[in-house]
Write a structure and sequence with these properties.
Distance between the termini of chain B: 40 Å
Distance between the termini of chain A: 41 Å
Largest sheet of chain B: 9 strands, antiparallel
Strand content of chain B: 35-45%
Structural class of chain A: alpha+beta
Number of strands of chain A: 8
Order of helices and strands of chain A: HHHEHEEEEEHEEH
Shape of chain A: globular
Largest sheet of chain A: 4 strands, antiparallel
Number of strands of chain B: 20
Strand content of chain A: 25-35%
Radius of gyration of chain A: 18 Å
Shape of chain B: globular
Strand order of the largest sheet of chain A: 2-8-4-5
Structural class of chain B: mainly beta
Largest interface: A-B, 63 and 48 residues
Helix content of chain A: 25-40%
Oligomer: heterodimer
Radius of gyration of chain B: 21 Å
């Protein structure tokens, strides 16, 4: 509740007409960015707890951390580009099923994507990130490619999990 | 494999002689459109009287009604694979885009990357993208304005009074929360653009949809903020990246067409959340 309350407060501030339209002063815009970042970052804990609950692991002693990738808009994610093996949980906030494509910034050239919910390997594709994106001021990512795969039938207000691993000949290079 | 187009079975998407993206529909509709980038120069004045008010955070007001074209670099690459086909295009030093078609999807994505907008010439600029189709829209277009009620707009016209526009560009710009579209006057054809954020849009010529995607201005507009809309990060102007979905075609089966449009709107506005957990070989079984 405490974490949610902070999130709610940030959402309240963001409904001010200046925040909606972008007519705030620059200093205020910077403060809005700070508020949004802090609260979306805190939301990771809420998300992790929800996933624990849904997977009936609420009382488990295993400690798993789930991370948000807040820079996917500039094709940057420290957790996917620095790991050769990672799990991805995709949550659908709509009240109807959705099929969509997911793009994750990576370093390797070849990956296996396992749909953990249905336990099947799925087709994926590596696409280069355009040079101009790599040059965005302030972007510190090492990722030069994106891993693309299709997520079929995400349940309404539910999630699907995927395991992603760099193919063995690529692992050393990716980790390196 | 050497190739100069993308689009799968549904479209033929190429870069034309002027560098613009040309799209031909491979169905019976005979629809086509061209996508291009342009800019307006922002008005600047001393704000003492209305005529001298500058373009700024609150208002869009171009200096003249002239839309400026870019000289396109002939610089693009094509990526094709089992899931997605893409054109990566550099328009100039600070405008580039990816045009994309996914397998099993009917939309065309335009993922634009604009900025930092250069201001060495001390001139504020407002960047737009234009989709010029072969539809005869008869001066009419539709915007979802506040995200709830889609309204019909008619160029140089207001429904309840006789309009005389002294600033025809600004006077024809309307809010677009998630979508705007055109319909053909004679054929059952519709052409829609979906946005990933609120933007301003218009249709200055029949068949055209125009959306503003980035602005950098050097004067305050005297409506209260007291600052020019000249956002800076990392010691340079802002870079923006965003997506338009373009979807159009025959509306003989209007229910199915509308349903697809509604799905696209939601898909772009309420994208799924992604959470990542790094794994090792020793903990992967536990994670499962």
């Amino acid at each position: 509740e405490k974490e949610l309350e902070q999130f709610r407060e940030a959402m309240g501030v963001m409904q001010h007409h200046d925040a909606v339209t972008g007519t705030e002063k620059q200093l205020v815009a910077d403060d809005y960015a700070r508020l949004l970042y802090e609260n979306v970052f805190n939301n990771e804990n809420i998300a992790a707890k929800s996933i624990y609950k849904w997977s009936n692991q609420e009382n488990s002693t295993l400690e798993w951390k789930t991370y948000s990738c807040l820079e996917l808009n500039i094709s940057s994610c420290v957790y996917t580009e620095n790991s050769s093996d990672f799990a991805v949980i995709i949550y659908n906030s709509q009240s109807q099923p959705v099929s969509t494509y997911v793009r994750l910034p990576v370093n390797g050239n070849s990956y296996e994507v396992l749909d953990s919910t249905d336990n099947v390997k799925i087709v994926s594709q590596i696409v280069p990130i355009p040079e101009r994106v790599l040059q965005i001021p302030g972007r510190e990512s090492k990722a030069t490619k994106e891993l693309v795969f299709r997520v079929n039938d995400l349940p309404p207000l539910g999630y699907k999990a995927y395991e992603i691993s760099a193919k063995s000949d690529m692992k050393e290079e990716t980790l390196g | 494999e050497s190739t100069n187009f993308i689009g799968g079975d549904l479209y033929t998407i190429t870069v034309d002689d002027s560098g613009h993206i040309a799209v031909q529909y491979n169905d019976q509709s005979d629809m086509n459109f061209v996508q291009s980038f342009h800019y307006y120069e922002g008005a600047e004045g001393n704000n003492k009287v209305y005529e001298n008010r500058s373009s700024g955070a609150y208002i869009f007001r171009p200096k003249t009604s002239e839309i400026h074209n870019f000289v396109y670099e002939r610089d693009y690459t094509i990526v094709k694979g089992p899931l997605v086909e893409e054109i990566h295009q550099n328009v100039n030093e600070w405008i580039s885009q990816v045009v994309r078609v996914y397998k099993q999807e009917e939309r065309i994505e335009f993922e634009w990357l604009i900025g930092p907008i250069p201001i060495d010439d001390k001139q504020g600029k407002e960047i737009v993208t234009k989709y010029t189709s072969n539809l005869n829209s008869n001066g009419e277009f539709y915007t979802d304005s506040n995200g709830r009620e889609t309204l019909k707009r008619k160029r140089d016209h207001r429904p309840t009074w006789n309009l005389r526009l002294y600033e025809p560009i600004a006077g024809n710009y309307y809010p677009v929360t998630t979508k705007m579209y055109l319909k053909d006057k004679n054929k059952p054809l519709k052409f829609s653009v979906f946005t990933d954020r609120s933007q301003g849009g218009t249709s200055m010529k029949n068949g055209e949809l125009e959306l503003m995607i980035h602005r950098r201005l050097l004067n305050d507009d005297a409506f209260g903020v007291g600052e020019a809309l000249n956002e800076v990060a990392y010691n340079t102007g802002l870079v923006v990246r965003g997506i338009h979905y373009v979807y159009g075609g025959n509306t003989k089966n209007l229910d199915a067409f509308t349903l697809k449009e509604k799905k696209l709107t939601l898909e772009l506005a309420l994208r799924p959340s992604i959470f990542v957990t790094p794994l090792t070989q020793t903990n992967i079984d536990n994670w499962r």
